[in-house]
Write a structure and sequence with these properties.
- Helices cover about 40% and strands about 20% of the residues.
- The chain contains 11 helices and 12 strands.
- It has helices at about 15-25, 45-50, 65-70, 75-80, 100-110, 130-140, 150-160, 175-180, 225-235, 245-260, 265-270; strands at about 1-10, 30-35, 55-60, 75, 85-90, 95-100, 120-125, 145-150, 170, 190, 215, 240.
- Strands 2-1-3-5-6-4 form a 6-stranded mixed β-sheet, with helices on both faces. Strands 9-8-7-10-11-12 form a 6-stranded parallel β-sheet, sandwiched between helices.
- Helix 6 links the parallel strand 7 and strand 8 (about 145-150).
- The mean pLDDT is about 95.
Protein backbone atom coordinates (compact mmCIF):
# COMPACT_ATOMS: atom_id res chain seq x y z
CA UNK A 1 0.00 0.00 0.00
CA UNK A 2 1.24 3.52 -0.83
CA UNK A 3 2.70 5.27 2.23
CA UNK A 4 2.24 8.97 3.08
CA UNK A 5 2.68 10.97 6.28
CA UNK A 6 2.43 14.33 7.99
CA UNK A 7 5.59 15.57 9.74
CA UNK A 8 5.48 18.11 12.57
CA UNK A 9 6.10 18.96 16.21
CA UNK A 10 3.63 18.92 17.88
CA UNK A 11 1.55 16.61 15.70
CA UNK A 12 -0.86 14.87 18.07
CA UNK A 13 -3.74 17.27 17.27
CA UNK A 14 -3.48 16.82 13.48
CA UNK A 15 -6.63 15.80 11.62
CA UNK A 16 -4.71 15.17 8.38
CA UNK A 17 -4.77 11.33 8.64
CA UNK A 18 -8.56 11.36 9.04
CA UNK A 19 -9.04 13.74 6.11
CA UNK A 20 -6.77 11.75 3.80
CA UNK A 21 -8.53 8.54 4.81
CA UNK A 22 -11.82 10.13 3.74
CA UNK A 23 -10.24 11.31 0.46
CA UNK A 24 -8.92 7.80 -0.21
CA UNK A 25 -12.33 6.24 0.47
CA UNK A 26 -14.06 8.82 -1.74
CA UNK A 27 -11.70 8.28 -4.70
CA UNK A 28 -11.07 4.55 -4.30
CA UNK A 29 -7.31 5.05 -3.88
CA UNK A 30 -5.52 2.76 -1.42
CA UNK A 31 -3.03 4.59 0.78
CA UNK A 32 -1.67 4.53 4.32
CA UNK A 33 -1.28 8.00 5.87
CA UNK A 34 0.41 8.35 9.27
CA UNK A 35 1.57 11.03 11.75
CA UNK A 36 5.28 11.43 12.46
CA UNK A 37 6.37 13.56 15.42
CA UNK A 38 9.83 14.85 14.55
CA UNK A 39 12.32 16.01 17.21
CA UNK A 40 13.54 19.54 16.57
CA UNK A 41 16.76 19.51 14.47
CA UNK A 42 16.01 16.03 13.07
CA UNK A 43 13.61 16.90 10.25
CA UNK A 44 15.95 16.37 7.29
CA UNK A 45 17.22 13.05 8.61
CA UNK A 46 13.72 11.88 9.51
CA UNK A 47 12.09 12.63 6.17
CA UNK A 48 14.95 11.19 4.11
CA UNK A 49 14.70 8.03 6.18
CA UNK A 50 10.94 7.96 5.50
CA UNK A 51 11.49 8.13 1.75
CA UNK A 52 14.27 5.53 1.82
CA UNK A 53 11.82 3.16 3.53
CA UNK A 54 9.10 3.43 0.91
CA UNK A 55 7.38 6.75 1.65
CA UNK A 56 6.02 8.44 -1.48
CA UNK A 57 4.81 11.80 -0.20
CA UNK A 58 4.43 13.93 2.90
CA UNK A 59 2.75 16.98 4.36
CA UNK A 60 4.92 19.28 6.48
CA UNK A 61 3.56 21.37 9.33
CA UNK A 62 4.92 23.56 12.14
CA UNK A 63 7.85 24.19 12.57
CA UNK A 64 9.52 22.55 9.54
CA UNK A 65 8.11 24.30 6.44
CA UNK A 66 11.16 26.47 5.78
CA UNK A 67 13.47 23.50 6.32
CA UNK A 68 11.38 21.42 3.91
CA UNK A 69 11.92 24.08 1.25
CA UNK A 70 15.70 23.68 1.57
CA UNK A 71 15.79 19.90 0.99
CA UNK A 72 13.78 19.95 -2.27
CA UNK A 73 15.42 19.26 -5.64
CA UNK A 74 12.48 20.71 -7.60
CA UNK A 75 9.94 23.39 -6.61
CA UNK A 76 6.52 24.25 -8.01
CA UNK A 77 5.99 27.94 -8.78
CA UNK A 78 3.81 28.28 -5.67
CA UNK A 79 6.57 26.88 -3.48
CA UNK A 80 9.27 28.92 -5.20
CA UNK A 81 7.45 32.22 -4.69
CA UNK A 82 6.37 31.35 -1.14
CA UNK A 83 9.77 30.23 0.12
CA UNK A 84 8.22 27.48 2.24
CA UNK A 85 7.00 23.95 1.48
CA UNK A 86 4.14 22.02 3.07
CA UNK A 87 3.81 19.16 0.52
CA UNK A 88 6.50 16.86 -0.82
CA UNK A 89 6.50 13.93 -3.23
CA UNK A 90 9.17 11.66 -4.68
CA UNK A 91 9.27 11.82 -8.47
CA UNK A 92 9.84 8.85 -10.78
CA UNK A 93 13.48 9.93 -11.03
CA UNK A 94 13.79 9.89 -7.19
CA UNK A 95 13.93 13.67 -6.92
CA UNK A 96 12.22 15.51 -4.05
CA UNK A 97 9.48 17.78 -5.43
CA UNK A 98 8.19 20.51 -3.12
CA UNK A 99 4.88 22.36 -3.33
CA UNK A 100 2.98 24.85 -1.18
CA UNK A 101 -0.75 24.17 -0.93
CA UNK A 102 -1.36 26.26 2.20
CA UNK A 103 -1.94 29.55 0.39
CA UNK A 104 -4.32 28.18 -2.22
CA UNK A 105 -6.08 26.16 0.50
CA UNK A 106 -6.59 29.25 2.67
CA UNK A 107 -7.76 31.35 -0.28
CA UNK A 108 -10.32 28.73 -1.30
CA UNK A 109 -11.67 28.48 2.24
CA UNK A 110 -11.92 32.28 2.57
CA UNK A 111 -13.86 32.31 -0.70
CA UNK A 112 -16.14 29.52 0.54
CA UNK A 113 -16.84 31.59 3.68
CA UNK A 114 -17.41 34.79 1.65
CA UNK A 115 -14.75 36.46 3.81
CA UNK A 116 -12.57 37.78 0.98
CA UNK A 117 -12.60 39.96 -2.15
CA UNK A 118 -9.82 41.00 -4.50
CA UNK A 119 -9.69 44.34 -2.65
CA UNK A 120 -9.52 42.96 0.90
CA UNK A 121 -7.15 44.72 3.29
CA UNK A 122 -5.63 41.95 5.42
CA UNK A 123 -3.82 42.16 8.75
CA UNK A 124 -1.61 39.08 9.04
CA UNK A 125 -0.42 38.21 12.54
CA UNK A 126 2.85 36.29 12.57
CA UNK A 127 6.01 36.03 10.48
CA UNK A 128 6.92 32.34 10.62
CA UNK A 129 6.56 29.62 8.02
CA UNK A 130 2.77 29.47 8.42
CA UNK A 131 2.42 33.16 7.62
CA UNK A 132 4.95 33.13 4.80
CA UNK A 133 3.24 30.15 3.18
CA UNK A 134 -0.08 31.92 2.61
CA UNK A 135 1.11 35.34 1.43
CA UNK A 136 1.75 34.58 -2.25
CA UNK A 137 -1.76 33.30 -2.97
CA UNK A 138 -3.41 36.23 -1.17
CA UNK A 139 -1.44 38.97 -2.94
CA UNK A 140 -1.74 37.13 -6.26
CA UNK A 141 -5.51 37.22 -5.72
CA UNK A 142 -5.26 41.01 -5.33
CA UNK A 143 -5.33 41.61 -1.56
CA UNK A 144 -3.21 44.07 0.39
CA UNK A 145 -1.36 42.59 3.39
CA UNK A 146 0.10 44.21 6.49
CA UNK A 147 2.27 41.94 8.65
CA UNK A 148 2.77 42.40 12.38
CA UNK A 149 4.90 40.14 14.51
CA UNK A 150 6.21 39.99 18.06
CA UNK A 151 9.75 40.19 16.59
CA UNK A 152 9.62 43.21 14.28
CA UNK A 153 12.72 42.16 12.29
CA UNK A 154 11.03 38.90 11.22
CA UNK A 155 8.14 40.87 9.72
CA UNK A 156 10.64 43.04 7.84
CA UNK A 157 12.46 39.94 6.60
CA UNK A 158 9.28 38.47 5.07
CA UNK A 159 8.46 41.69 3.25
CA UNK A 160 12.04 41.81 1.99
CA UNK A 161 11.63 38.23 0.69
CA UNK A 162 8.60 39.29 -1.38
CA UNK A 163 10.60 42.07 -3.00
CA UNK A 164 9.10 44.33 -5.67
CA UNK A 165 5.55 43.58 -4.51
CA UNK A 166 3.72 46.73 -3.46
CA UNK A 167 0.77 44.92 -1.89
CA UNK A 168 2.66 43.86 1.24
CA UNK A 169 4.09 45.91 4.11
CA UNK A 170 4.95 45.57 7.81
CA UNK A 171 4.07 47.39 10.98
CA UNK A 172 5.16 47.37 14.63
CA UNK A 173 2.53 45.88 16.93
CA UNK A 174 2.52 49.02 19.06
CA UNK A 175 1.70 51.09 15.95
CA UNK A 176 -1.58 49.22 15.39
CA UNK A 177 -3.22 51.55 17.92
CA UNK A 178 -2.24 54.56 15.79
CA UNK A 179 -3.75 52.84 12.74
CA UNK A 180 -7.08 52.53 14.52
CA UNK A 181 -6.92 56.20 15.59
CA UNK A 182 -6.29 57.18 11.97
CA UNK A 183 -9.27 55.05 10.81
CA UNK A 184 -7.16 52.58 8.85
CA UNK A 185 -9.48 49.59 8.77
CA UNK A 186 -8.77 45.95 8.02
CA UNK A 187 -11.31 43.70 6.32
CA UNK A 188 -9.74 40.44 7.57
CA UNK A 189 -7.45 39.62 10.49
CA UNK A 190 -5.62 36.30 10.07
CA UNK A 191 -3.84 34.76 13.04
CA UNK A 192 -0.85 32.83 11.70
CA UNK A 193 1.01 32.73 15.02
CA UNK A 194 1.25 29.65 17.24
CA UNK A 195 -0.58 31.48 20.05
CA UNK A 196 -3.76 29.38 19.87
CA UNK A 197 -1.70 26.21 20.02
CA UNK A 198 -0.30 27.54 23.30
CA UNK A 199 -3.78 28.65 24.47
CA UNK A 200 -2.74 32.30 24.31
CA UNK A 201 -3.92 35.41 22.45
CA UNK A 202 -1.77 37.59 20.13
CA UNK A 203 -0.81 40.89 21.69
CA UNK A 204 -2.89 43.21 19.53
CA UNK A 205 -5.06 46.17 20.62
CA UNK A 206 -8.82 45.62 20.77
CA UNK A 207 -9.26 49.06 19.15
CA UNK A 208 -8.60 47.54 15.69
CA UNK A 209 -11.57 45.16 16.09
CA UNK A 210 -14.77 46.23 14.31
CA UNK A 211 -18.09 44.29 14.24
CA UNK A 212 -17.99 43.85 10.43
CA UNK A 213 -14.42 42.52 10.29
CA UNK A 214 -13.70 38.87 9.41
CA UNK A 215 -11.37 37.04 11.80
CA UNK A 216 -9.63 33.78 10.88
CA UNK A 217 -7.24 31.52 12.78
CA UNK A 218 -4.99 29.11 10.88
CA UNK A 219 -5.05 26.86 13.95
CA UNK A 220 -8.07 24.67 14.68
CA UNK A 221 -9.58 22.84 17.63
CA UNK A 222 -13.00 21.97 19.05
CA UNK A 223 -14.93 25.22 19.32
CA UNK A 224 -13.38 28.63 18.80
CA UNK A 225 -9.65 29.08 19.37
CA UNK A 226 -8.54 31.53 22.12
CA UNK A 227 -7.97 34.20 19.44
CA UNK A 228 -11.45 33.75 17.94
CA UNK A 229 -13.09 33.75 21.39
CA UNK A 230 -11.35 37.07 22.07
CA UNK A 231 -12.60 38.45 18.73
CA UNK A 232 -16.19 37.40 19.45
CA UNK A 233 -15.98 38.94 22.93
CA UNK A 234 -15.07 42.23 21.22
CA UNK A 235 -18.06 42.17 18.90
CA UNK A 236 -16.88 40.28 15.80
CA UNK A 237 -19.76 38.42 14.13
CA UNK A 238 -17.87 36.39 11.51
CA UNK A 239 -15.03 34.11 12.65
CA UNK A 240 -13.56 30.83 11.45
CA UNK A 241 -10.73 28.50 12.43
CA UNK A 242 -8.44 26.73 9.95
CA UNK A 243 -10.37 23.46 9.53
CA UNK A 244 -11.65 24.44 6.09
CA UNK A 245 -8.16 25.51 5.02
CA UNK A 246 -6.74 22.22 6.30
CA UNK A 247 -9.19 20.27 4.15
CA UNK A 248 -8.70 22.43 1.04
CA UNK A 249 -4.88 22.36 1.22
CA UNK A 250 -5.03 18.59 1.81
CA UNK A 251 -7.04 18.21 -1.39
CA UNK A 252 -4.30 19.96 -3.39
CA UNK A 253 -1.70 17.71 -1.74
CA UNK A 254 -3.79 14.67 -2.68
CA UNK A 255 -3.91 15.96 -6.25
CA UNK A 256 -0.12 16.34 -6.36
CA UNK A 257 0.30 12.71 -5.27
CA UNK A 258 -2.54 11.03 -7.16
CA UNK A 259 -3.73 13.39 -9.93
CA UNK A 260 -7.29 13.52 -8.53
CA UNK A 261 -8.98 16.41 -6.68
CA UNK A 262 -11.37 15.10 -3.98
CA UNK A 263 -14.79 16.66 -3.30
CA UNK A 264 -13.94 18.90 -0.36
CA UNK A 265 -17.46 20.21 0.25
CA UNK A 266 -18.61 16.80 1.50
CA UNK A 267 -15.66 16.58 3.90
CA UNK A 268 -16.06 20.17 5.14
CA UNK A 269 -19.75 19.57 5.89
CA UNK A 270 -18.67 16.59 7.98
CA UNK A 271 -16.37 18.72 10.13
CA UNK A 272 -17.96 22.17 10.28
Amino acid sequence: MKLFAVFGNPIKHSKSPIIHKLFAKQTGILQNYIKINVPINFFSKSIRNFFQNGGLGANITIPFKKEAYKICDILTSRAKYSGVVNTIKITSSKKILGDNTDGIGLLKDLKNLNFITTKSNILLLGAGGAAQGVIYSLIHFGCNITIVNRTYQHAKDIVRYFKNIKKINYLKIEDLSYHSINNINYDIIINATSSSMKKKIPNIPSSIIKPNIFCYDLFYNKGNTPFLKWCVEHGVKNVSDGTGMLIEQAAYSFYLWHGIIPNTKKIIRKYI
